[in-house]
Amino acid sequence: MSLWTAADAAEATGGRAVGDWAITGISIDTRTIQPGDLFVALKDIRDGHDFVTQALQKGAGAALVSHVPEGVSQDAPLLIVDNVLPALEALGRAGRKRMSGKVIAITGSVGKTSTKEMARAALTGQGQIHAAEASYNNHWGVPLTLARMPQDTDFAIIEIGMSHPGEIAPLSRMARPHVAMITTIAPAHMEAFGSLDGIAREKGAIFEGLEPIGTAIIPEELQVTPILRDCADAAGAVVIGFGQHGMAKLVQSKAEDGALKCRSRITGETVDFTLQTTGTHFALNAVGVLAALSAAGADLKQAGKHIGDWRPPKGRGAIEKLGDIQLIDDAFNANPASLAAGLATLAGLQGGRRVAILGDMLELGADEVQMHRDVVTDPAMASIDLVHSAGPLMRYLHDALPQDKRGIWASSATELAAKVQELVKAGDIVLVKGSKSSKVSAVVDALRKSVQTPTP
Question: Which part of the chain is the Mur ligase central domain (predicted)?
């Protein structure tokens, strides 16, 4: 079944189709392109037009271009437009317009992708589900996700992110969600926003794109919750708060055999579920997901049953057995809120020594030094035996730690990874956490290489 015909795509974008083609998917990367895909020649580090010949050779059904690239036949299957990115946006809006199912949009400083994947798993068996790939949540990721959406989609889950002011509202208006959820607000991209209040207002702009009488799912118990509520009220949304309190709340959770058995109350209905992780922050987001899916018309009991099918992905808090140690690989991202959640997960696990290996938290703005020092006062630190760290900012935490918890500090994650044999010992429970750009994942790689036969 085709996703777009040449005529439909031309009408949606105002472009000129060369040939009578039909495509079954959309790709922006020739390395992963599939036969029948529309190749979108975006300009980024490289100009996508340089790869059109390769895309067509790999079986692309057509290419979206602003001109016929050199070496490409004049009668090749093309969609020629004035500008490729606005054309992709137009295709995304058209994809949203022709779909009659429900759209759920998710944003937040932490947990967007894992929450999106929870929602995808929870919707199992409830029709045709479409969700963003990976972390496709920016100015090209959102329209790409919408353009890829099959017309008969019953539930779409759209992830929306930002790094600068003014990005979220246009993407939300493009997605036109029926339900919009904010996972949490935390110091991230502080250099661009200046304050937590500024981040909250930008995240709250997701409600500007809500369909009439849409639903806003917001975290309770935050300092900035009133700002989020004001944003939702201004959009005329029905507001559901989630967390330890609110209309959707986590009533209780109990760690058992590496899983978390939870009871929640979602707008008056009790829902029990089990997550294959011990991170309470995941359980709180799961409550928000269940509230969002219920508001979108999904079966709540079914969603509670299938949310347990979700697993934390690599680099985002997954717990694995690695030889004689337990590893929490959370090396993809870090800010004070997500680090606190990671430390709480580490503190809650039973076994041997609890060891935290931490890389710098980046893009925190003027208070970055104090935010790193303040990690020493995190309540979970009382249960953590040893902290190794890497990077110039983590040096401030290293110096603030009591002597008995102070492990190895290195100027870079690569340098720390080279000392992997000194970092852990058999029986340890190990958290590796840091911003992606701190490259603390090098320590995870070194730990894996040091174990010849990982235990499943």
Answer: 106-292
